[in-house]
């Protein structure tokens, strides 16, 4: 039997929101580069941005490409 209370859920690290100062992941880097190329916005890609900023840029580029 587990010592963890049943009403407490354990989140995986992927489920936690990214902190502003963490570098973007390799997956984000690849996705951002691909989207920036497809949207013809090379300035949208910067390998030195945070996870949070990468996620925002990815969302914006997806909206541009879908709209």
Task: Give a description of the structure.
The protein has 67 residues and is an all-alpha fold. It has a domain of 46 residues. 43% of the residues lie in helices and 0% in strands. It has two helices and no strands. α1 runs parallel beside α2. The protein is globular, with a radius of gyration of 16 Å. The mean pLDDT is 84.
Radius of gyration: 16 Å
What is the strand content? under 5%
Give the helices and strands as they follow along the chain: HH
Instruction: Give the structural class.
Output: mainly alpha
Total number of strands: 0
- Average predicted local confidence, pLDDT: 84
Largest sheet: none
Shape: globular
> Helical segment tally?
2
Short description:
Helices cover 43% and strands 0% of the residues. The protein is mainly α and 67 residues long.
Question: Which labels suit this protein?
Answer:
single chain; 67 residues; mainly alpha; 2 helices
Summarize the helices and strands and which ones pair or pack.
Blueprint: H1 26-38, H2 51-66
Helix pairs in contact: 1-2
